[in-house]
Amino acid sequence: MTKSNFEVLRAGINTTYQDLGRNNLYQIGIPFSGAMDKRNYLLSNNLVGNKNNTPVIEFAYQGPLLKLNGERTCLAITGDVNFNILKKNSKIEKGNCYQTYCLEDGDQIDILSTNKSVYGYLAASGGFEVELFWNSCSTNTKAKIGANNGEKLKEGDSIKILKSEKTYQLKKLNYFNTKIEQIRVIKGTNYDYFSDDGKKNFLEKKFTVSKLTDRMGMRLEGSKIENIIDTNIRSEGLIKGVIQVPADGNPIIMLSDHGTIGGYPKIGVVISADYDKLVQLQPGSIIKFKEVSLFEAENLHKIYSMETQSILNQIR
C-alpha cells in the first residue's frame, strides 16, 4: 500500500526509473536497458533492505530535489555524489554516499551533482510504485518505454513510495569508487576490416570521451581507425559494450539503451567487468583500450561478480 511520496521540486538533468533491465527482447528491437552502473544500483537497494531488482531512481550529473510527503522513509544514495538532507526545521545535513538516512514528512533531499562521474542512484526502503513494461520499470527515453510513460522525471511529478514490510536499521558501507583509464576489450567480429595502422591506433593510442555521449552510446575522439574493406555492412545484431567504427574512423561504444542492430563494422567489445566504470567516465575523460582473450574476459567477469557479492555481503 502506498503511504508516502516524493514531490519533484527539481528534476535534474537525466533522472529516470531503472532496475536490472529487460531480458530476451532483442528479436523485437528492445535492448536490455537497466541501470548503467549495475554495482552501484545493487548497493543502493541492499543498503535499504530491498530486493536486488527493486526500482530505483538513476540520475546523471545533477540530480533531483525531492520533498517527502507522508510517513518516515529511509533512503540511500550510491555513486560519487554531492547531496544534502534539508530538514523541515531548516537544518542542513551534508550527505554521505553508501549511508542510509531517514526522512520525516516535509524533509527534502537535494542531490546537487555527481563528482567527476556521471551516474548516481537513489533507493528508498520499500521501493517505488511504478508500472512494469516487459517485466521491467527501466525507462528508455529514446524508445519511450518503461515507467513514467518512457519519460524522464520532471518538476511537479509525484514519486510514490511503497511501505517497507521490514523493520529497518540504519547502515553504512565503507566503499570507494575507483577510476579507470584502461578499458579491456576482446576482438570484434569485423576486426579484420581494419588496417594494421587502424588496429594499432585502436589498441595503442588514447581516445577522448566526447560530449556526444548518453545512455545509448559513447562517442570517442582520437586517432582515426582506418577501414580497408567496407565502412558499411549489412545490419547485424548489437550487444551492450560493442564498439562500432563509422566512416569517420571515430569509435562508438554501445551502452545500455543501444539500438539492437547496426551497419557499422565492429572492431571490439568492452568486457563486462569494465562496463560499470566505463559508463562513469565524463566527457573529456581519456581512455585507452587493451586487448584480452575471451578466456581472460570470462575470468575477469567472474572475479568482478565475486567482488560485488563480497561488498553486498558486508551490508547484511
Low-confidence stretches: none
- Please give the number of β-strands: 20
The chain-level mean pLDDT equals 95
- Strand residue content: 25-35%
Query: Which series of helices and strands comes N to C?
Result: EEHEEEEEEEEEEHEEEEEEEHEH
* Rg calc: 20 Å
How does the overall form come out from the CA principal axes? Answer: elongated
The major β-sheet equals:
7 strands, mixed, barrel
Structural class: alpha+beta
Structure, explained:
The chain is an alpha+beta fold and 316 residues long. Helix content is 15%, strand content 32%. The chain has 2 domains: 2-162, no CATH class; 182-312, Cyclophilin, CATH 2.40.100.10. The chain contains 4 helices and 20 strands. It has a 7-stranded mixed β-barrel with strand order 12-19-16-17-14-13-20. It has a 6-stranded antiparallel beta sheet with strand order 7-6-9-4-1-11, with no helix packed on it. The protein has a 5-stranded antiparallel beta sheet with strand order 2-3-10-5-8, with helices on one face. A hairpin with a 5-residue loop joins strand 6 and strand 7 (92-94). The mean pLDDT is 95.
Question: Secondary-structure map with pairings?
Answer:
Blueprint: E1 2-10, E2 16-18, H1 38-47, E3 56-60, E4 65-69, E5 73-78, E6 81-86, E7 92-94, E8 100-103, E9 108-114, E10 119-124, E11 158-162, E12 182-187, H2 196-204, E13 206-213, E14 217-222, E15 236-237, E16 242-244, E17 252-254, E18 261-262, E19 266-270, H3 275-279, E20 286-291, H4 294-315
Parallel strand pairs: 12-20
Antiparallel strand pairs: 1-4, 1-11, 2-3, 3-10, 4-9, 5-8, 5-10, 6-7, 6-9, 12-19, 13-14, 13-20, 14-17, 15-18, 16-17, 16-19
Helix pairs in contact: 1-4
